[in-house]
Amino acid sequence: MTKRIRLILLTAVLALYSYATAEDGYRLWLRYEPLEDAADYLRQIGDTEAGETNETSALAVEELKLGLDGLLGTSRSSKAPKILLGTPESNKAIAKLDLDLSDLGEEGFWVAAAGTKKKKQIVITANTDQGVLYGVFAFLRHLQTEQDLDGLNLKSTPRIEHRLLNHWDNLTRTVERTMAGASIFNWFDLPYYVEPYYHDYARACASIGINGTVLTNVNSNATILRPQYLEKVAALADTFRPYGIKVYLTARFSAPIEIGGLETADPLEPEVIKWWTDKINEIYEYVPDFGGFLVKANSEGQPGPQSYHRDHADGANLLARALAPHQGIVMWRAFVYEFETQEDRHKQAYTEFTGLDGKFEPNVLIQTKNGAIDFMPREPFHPLFGSTPETPLALELQIAQEYTGGDIHMVYLAPMWKEALSADTYVEGVGSTVAKVIDGSVYGHETSAIAGVANIGNARNWTGHPMAAANWYAFGRLAWDYDLSSEQIADEWTRMTFGNESSTVETIESMLLASYENMVSYSMPLGLHHIMYPGHHYGPGPWHDEGRPDWTSIYYHQANEDGIGFDRTETGSDALSQYAPEIIEQWGSPKTIPEKFLLWFHHVDWDFEMKSGNTLWQEICLTYQEGVDGVSEMIGQWESLEGRIDEQRYARVSALLHRQLQDAKFYKDACLAYFHTFAQRPYPEGVEAPEYDLEHYKSFELYHVPGDPGEQW
Ligand code: BDP
User: For the chain, where do the domains classified as CATH 3.30.379.10 start and end?
Assistant: First the structure.
């Protein structure tokens, strides 16, 4: 072999090696890189004795092997404690232990040290194979995060029954409001070709307890209900089933007209009822465990029952009755507001759905966004939570960062979701948190659901921004157990994604945990909301004043020479009256409301004195500045990791953080330049005045922003 050929070969081998070990993010939090303390663990973990009965249990065995081989290497000592894996039915050795699994339900698991002093064992068990699979992921997470095996005892059951991703994916493969590439669902190739990555998607979802996925956009297309597409849906359902993931679809209310050839979609017309019943029966022929429908009706131009002078209950019940014999559910969205009325949008869903409470079939859940406006960077909880004692509510969160920096900004959303989940509605006394309304415990509902609008696309690393995967992870973990803290979830994710080296972990965690407040501060602080650029929603547009009033910014901030903020008290829209008396009392005065919600409920003078002693104007300026400074700090923290983490992710995050800083500064400068025209007061010390005049910011345009529906149709 000549020197030259040897060199070429060597380069090829090296390239292959670096490709194979590349940290391109594809493996998400399931990297299973060798542990530093592997030798220690190897003394405590021996061979696996598994009971295998079906595809799900086979996956559990395979995952455990994959995880252990990666984390600890492939050889095991015959003297080390064995892992007993399976249900008491599938594994005789587990049956012999005679464990009480009665509190584990269908999905819970138990991972524990078992056996005798002489013959130690580790048991990973559950009532079902699905539970065992969850147990395997929990055990591997325990190892990945380098937890102790002494006294191992992980017992857990999910708090919420249906834990769903909502994909806002179109059949054309564009994705509404997600920036991570095209839709992962390759409809044209289905059912002939099932992409291998569908398995990896399902596996990642299962690893965090997600058990359902809505495949299609809430702005729906009736084509998905055609037989040709149902075949495709069936191929996906077959792929996801062994991972415990059910598929759901969005139902376009006018489908009987669009694909059924009827002249009406009136939910009370017998031919419409028959059409949906036949369609639903047909779906179950393709997908015997089809989960049900998510419906956006009479909202933002979507068809719905009100077009026929029927109400939302008539619409939801039509579908629910046909789904019930198959155990399917309807998630009917509360995100509705009238096209014509000028009533504060904040109030409309509450008025609509409290009026219908008690009229829904038992398999209907009203799916409600965390806040009443629309996934703003920070929203007070939706007043509907706790206000429909007869009707279960599902919580809809947005993992995609529509208003929170797209997937360009590093923003860890768990703190926002925790704020919503732990908000006290007071409806049944202190402690009636949104989480408890959702899990059904406040009013004794049996069924419960939580949904996250997915931030996933066909980007190699799934979510575009390497840090955005933390949000997918956090959603699943909180859906399983809303009592987990943002810190704990950040810690798990960071260790699993970047390894356990302590200063790396500390640095990334501290960045994650600061990121949410930073983003709120540099975009919409102190209760400001809906002041984003129209259409694509990326970046500021506080001056936006065209079109229907409640789609403008000026409608929401109400800035004038006197002050700023939306009066939602008695003297204004009175949306506050939709909350419990305890909330009204606290939030009713600008002096007592938590300042983070001040301008959401109050129109306040520029010179209003804040708790800090600053005037409102000064506080607004300082908070914007704090947000920008926070991003600079994140950059400094990230730079301290150079050389300590892989070059690939280091470089990507670095570039993104620099762009985030530029954007944050732009947000601050644009908003301050604009609000200054009303406030006309000097910028306080410590605040960098906007670099340019207002016209500069107003004239700035972004083109072809990913996820913008205006670009898609
Ligand atoms: C808004 C989005 C829009 C969605 C709508 C919804 O801008 O793209 O279709 O919510 O949730 O946030 O239906």
Answer: 32-156
